Each structure stands twice: as C-alpha cells, then as structure tokens.
Amino acid sequence: MSEEDKDSKTEEASERKLSKARAEGDSWTSREAGHTLGFLALFVIVALVLPAMLPGAMVSNALLFDLAPMMQIERVQDLRAVMAGFATGVAKILLPVFGVLLAGALISILMSGPFTVSAKRLQPKASKLNPMQGIRRIYSVSNLIEFLKSLVKLVLIAVLLMIALKQAISAILPGAVLLPEQLPGLIGATAFTGLGWVVAMMLPILAFDIFRKRREWLKKQRMSKKEQRDESKDSDGDPHIRARRQQIRQSRLRQRIRDTVPKATLVVMNPTHYAVALRYERGVDPAPVCVALGMDLMALKIRDLALEHEVTVLESPPLARALHAVCEIDRPIPEDHWAAVAELVGYVLDLRRRQRRRLPEGTQHIT
C-alpha cells in the first residue's frame, strides 16, 4: 500500500468492514496472553494446587514404598492392585495440574483476540511460496519489535527468578540446617515468590499489548471517504437510484390519491398537517375504510382534490391525528374510532339527503 493510500484512509472503519475482516480471518491477536496465562497457571498450581494435593499424595506413596518389602506379588492381579494405588496417588496431583493448565489455555485463547475460523486463510497463496517475501516478513519492523520485546521480557523474567533463587539460597546459607522434609517447602516458597513477581510484571504488559494490537488493527482497517461512499452504495444502493425509486413511489402515491380521493365519502383534516380520506358504502363496507392519507403537502393535495370533486372535508384536529397514526390504506379504521367517525359519516349522508344536522363539537365543515 502506497503512502498516498495510507494518508487517504482517515475514517474509522464501519462495523460492516470489521465484520468482513473477521470473517476472512483478519483480526488482532496478542501473543502475550498465552505467555501471561501460562505463568499465571503455574503460579496457581504452586500457590493452591500443590499445597493442597501434594502432602496427601506423598504420604500415600510413602506408605506404599514402606510396605513394599512385605508385599506378596504372585499374580498379575496383585501387581495391578499395587499399581492402581500408585496411579491414584499420582492422578490426585496431575489431574488438578492439567485442569489448571487447560483453563489457562482456554482463557488465553479468549484474551488473545476474537476467535475466528476462516477457510480463506487456509487457501494456498503463491505469494507465500516466494522466498523474498518470506524474508521480508521475517525481517519486518513489526517482527523486529516483537523480537526485541521478547528479548527484554526474557531478561526481566530471568532477573526476577534469579533474585528469588538468591533469596532462597541466602536463607539456608551459611551453616543453616535444612532437613530433607523441609526442602519441598523451600522450593515451593521460592517458586511462589518468583512466579508471583513474573505474573505481576506480565499483567501490565498484557494489558498494554492488547490495547496496542487492537489499536493497530483498527488503524489498519481505516477507510477512505471513497470506500465509505462505495460501501454505502453497496448496502443502501446508489443515491441516484434511491432518489429515482423515491420519485416513482411518490408518483404512484399521487396517482393513487387522484384515483381514490374523488370516490371517498369524506376527508378528515387537521387544518394543514394531516388528512385522512374515508370511504363508507352502506351494505358494502362493515366499517369506514381508509383510502388515502397524507401529511403536510400531501394532506393539502388530498384536501384540494376532495374539494374539487365535491367530497365533504371536515376539520377535526384530534380525530385526524388519531386516524393518521393508526389507519392503513384499504383497511377499515380501528374499532376504537368507529363511534367518532360514525357521527361524521352520518352528517355527510344527511347532507347528501339535504337534511340539516349539527356537527359534533370541535368539528368544522371546510368548503
């Protein structure tokens, strides 16, 4: 990628691009998660698992060796029984240890970055067979930084472990008496101290590495303004096509209004904002049916068409707003509004029969 291309990618990546990158196996990963969780698992084993399991297992195995001279092993079943007891003692130690290591491995996978499985990453690429490109990847700046970071980390770990070991040696020298049964405790305390220091050092490194890797990945996924426009076209369609579709919809809506409003029984309006055209034919419609509705300019168009074709237009703001909110084209009005609309329909029918009838309160006849 040229510097010009990099400079043009100034916009944050969209969620669609990030999801596509993850689906193709391109995501951020942190190697420090595996290293840190490995040391943390060893620390948990030394601090919790071994102190709880090791004494009992050692006692049972010591008893087994003490009784070994008196054992009569004449059959395979006798040997099997002896080995079963020994294996049980060993399993009491190893199973919790393996459990902690497995838990650490699973947690490190979750912390290393989003887990993705992509067949695209498994496809062979000719570029990977090119030795020059392989050499460039090996000696790239990012790999050099990783190497230096690992080297510094290894030196720090060695220094911390040496300090812990030096403290342990100074505790038994010079001239201190150390009984054999005290040796496991000394080793455990030394390992506890050394691993504790290492974990304390690794946790901040892990947090910083996760932050850095995710930040670099998001920076890599940045988009140019042109890419954003292209993605918008792909997801929402070309703006010109959308505008054309909107024009077609508006044209069809206007044509429908021209066809249906002249056949309406009445139009209920909120002076200039809402208009609902209703049709009711006795013996045909079980309830008044909405044949057209609109807001603002469309509402005025419905009113003008109704007045032009001598359709009664009634101004009732609360009812007009309520009907506009719930009515659907070519569907009867909701039952909640039957009573209010029935009064207006009755007024219109009486008006056609040249019978005088008072309008409901708050309603005006627009002429």
TrEMBL record:
Lineage top rank: taxon: Bacteria
Biased composition (Basic and acidic residues): 224-241
Record carries keyword Membrane: yes
Region described as Disordered: 1-25, 221-243
Transmembrane segments: 37-58, 93-117, 138-165, 185-211
InterPro entries per record: T3SS_substrate_exporter, T3SS_substrate_exporter_C
Keywords, ordered alphabetically: Cell projection, Cilium, Flagellum, Membrane, Transmembrane, Transmembrane helix
SUPFAM superfamilies, per the entry: EscU C-terminal domain-like
UniProt family annotation: Belongs to the type III secretion exporter family.
Entries under PANTHER family matching the protein: FLAGELLAR BIOSYNTHETIC PROTEIN FLHB (PTHR30531:SF12)
UniProt-recorded name of the protein: Flagellar biosynthesis protein FlhB
Gene source species: Pseudogemmobacter faecipullorum
Upper classification of the organism: Bacteria, Pseudomonadati, Pseudomonadota, Alphaproteobacteria, Rhodobacterales
